Amino acid sequence: MRKFLSGTVAFALLAASLPAAAASATVTRAWQFKADSVKGLEVRNLIGDIRVERGTEAGVHITAQATIDAESQAEAERLLGLIEYRTADVGAGSRFDVFLSRSHFPKIYWSGGTSMWWGVSYTEHLGERIRLVGDRDDAPAVRVDLVIRAPAGSSLTVDNHLGETVANGYSGELRLDGGSGLLRSTGGAGRLDLDNGSGKVEVVGHRGEVTADTGSGSVTITDCECEIAADTGSGSVEIRNGSGEVAASTGSGRVTIENFSGSIEADTGSGSVRARAVSNVRRLDADTGSGGVEVDGDLSALERLRIDTGSGSVKLRSSGTPSLEIRINTGSGGVDVNAPGATVRESDDEWIVRMKDGAGSGLIDTGSGSVDLSFP
Question: Quick one: average pLDDT of 233-240?
Fold first, then answer.
């Protein structure tokens, strides 16, 4: 049963800027969901761009603009009528699905699809397996662009398989899933979860909790007062201008943190860790397989320090002195300590540096890198 209110439907036909043998058809529809939809609405789309905004109405409002480029005007219009919008308005189980049946859309054009005769690519969406081709003459081009407006405090999940998803000013609980397009949130608040297959993840000006995960893209988080958990398989992680806590992990990229106030945890397989102009760092944990670790700023708040590198060097520069005892082990690298007033003990296999009353604990371990410490 359809429990939503259907809004105005607009229809337009486009032919300009297309090849002579092609035609385009576009239809726009709108839905206004009940107020209960804010408890948990899930939106799933195969291909197109999605924009999420803060709404002013009690329920969630969705506008869908579907466009199809096909061989003829009649074919484009026919295919438009075969796109299904499956909806439910049942509180926390509310949903909005854009469904393309394989029987009507066995293959569609996508710029990332294969155009070589020996290559075939498919995508799975809502139980349908659809072939993706990179030649515009071989299949219709289909896209459904969505605008979602949800009031403050809403719980919303958006899954957009092929396309960009951008949120602006959203306040509440938001999860964005993507396959290969950009995931971005600006000026938001609340709990934010972004999960991408191979595209970039960007967050600007958030307040709350941020979880960012991508398989092979980069993660960039700027101007946030957040608890941050960022993970990428082979891209870089950059955190700039903010406060809270950071946990960053990458398989083969670097981790860069600048002008951040709060505790830091960083883990890389083969990349470096660089933290500059940091402050109020009570815990600092850094682990790299083959990259170096370099940290500078005010480390006077340090209570726990753990740094481990397989083959990289370690450099710490602080404008303040923490109450900390650091044990240093290196496999084949040298140790240089510049810490006036500190007690330094050296043995064959370990250095112990005690600053102030040594209330906190620290451990630095490198396989083949040097250790360079400088405290005032």
Answer: 96
